[in-house]
Amino acid sequence: MRADATFAAAFVWGILSLFPLAAAQAAELTILTNQGATPGVRELAAAFERASGNKVTVLQETGPALEQRLANGPADLITSNPGQIEGFIKKGWVVGTPVPFALAGLGVSVRAGAPKPDISTVEAYKAALLAAKSIGYSRGCSGTNAAAGIKELGLAEALKAKTVFTEDGPVVEALAKGDFEIGIQQTNIMVGAPGTDYVGAPPGSLNKPCPSSVALLKVSKEPDAARAMIRFMVSPEAAPLLRKTYVEPAKP
């Protein structure tokens, strides 16, 4: 028990060393997140809150609601894939340089209770995709990367007629409803999703991870606290928290 207490104290001290002493009045931060980064950001936000005394709200917005927040607030940080953040920079919503912080690998799931296909090797994964009656993925990063892997296998044409694209919400939600037989998305979203069973990650180079970066927003009312949050998100203390949510810290 003493060892656990020592570790906890060292962990908190490590976080506190990343930013100045808290002001008399705690800051309130809002982080806008992309779907693939949300579980990890929530884990990091909770740790940052405990150590700093600041309050952190994590919101997953899309469409006009997201653009309204980016342009007018309240919001302090944005996490997204590098390409999307580049678009936000061009619109003048982001200041400074985006910082990569997480990599979310791909995963494969089936509907709860369905037989789990063997995907342990490239040939087994290829056979599983060919045998499936239908395959679902999104048009976002995970879907783009899943499609790249399918093309690498030479199956793009063979699977075209039985591929279902999800438009809104996580792939696992459509999978649970029976919209398709096999779903492919980031592992951190798929593991433990109701109505589905996680099978595993695509083998080797077919598991193409989705990167997420974090950036400071021009509308932030608490830029110092927001920058402190960024420093924490890429610190050694953040790595085990990210891995708890099935993502890897971005490599420097």
Structural commentary:
The chain folds into two domains: 2-102 and 212-249, 3-Layer(aba) Sandwich (D-Maltodextrin-Binding Protein, domain 2), CATH 3.40.190.10; 106-206, D-Maltodextrin-Binding Protein, domain 2, CATH 3.40.190.10. Helix content is 41%, strand content 23%. The protein has helices spanning 2-16, 38-52, 63-72, 82-90, 122-131, 141-152, 156-160, 171-176, 187-190, 223-233, 239-244, and strands at 28-32, 55-59, 77-80, 94-104, 106-111, 135-138, 163-166, 182-186, 196-200, 210-217, 248-249. The strands form two sheets. A six-stranded mixed β-sheet has the order 2-1-3-10-4-11, sandwiched between helices. A five-stranded mixed β-sheet has the order 7-6-8-5-9. β1 (28-32), α2 and β2 form a beta-alpha-beta unit. α1 (2-16) packs across α2.
Strand content: 15-25%
> How many strand units?
11
Name the CATH architecture of the largest domain.
3-Layer(aba) Sandwich
Radius of gyration over C-alpha positions, nearest whole angstrom = 20 Å
What's the arrangement of strands in the largest beta sheet? Answer: 2-1-3-10-4-11
- CATH fold category name of the largest domain: D-Maltodextrin-Binding Protein, domain 2
